[in-house]
Amino acid sequence: MPTKITAIYENPKSPEEFEAGHHEQIVLAKKIPGVQKVESAKVWPKEDGSATPAYRVLDMYFTDYAAASRAVTTEEAKAFVGKAFELATGGVRLLFTDVEDV
């Protein structure tokens, strides 16, 4: 079953600084061995102007769980995670999920 690793970035202290470094984060994600596709999305603001539960998400797709598990042991993944924690001044969560076709 296809697997994706999702980075959920919580609201950063400085959205401008986050955005300035986000392109590099995407470049690093694409270098991770076995990654088939990378998607980035910015969370829409709430209608009432209050803070959203997340600021951005970044999805990295792999053929299966084994491929994703191997990928995270590489130097390329280490560079990606290092940059993620540098950018994520509001916090970040990394999730492995099965991709279900419906």
TrEMBL record:
- Give the source species: Streptomyces monashensis
InterPro entries reported for this sequence: Dimeric_a/b-barrel, EthD_dom
Lineage of origin: Bacteria, Bacillati, Actinomycetota, Actinomycetes, Kitasatosporales
Which GO terms label this protein's molecular function in UniProt? oxidoreductase activity
Provide the protein name.
Ethyl tert-butyl ether degradation protein EthD
**NCBIfam families xrefs:** EthD family reductase (TIGR02118)
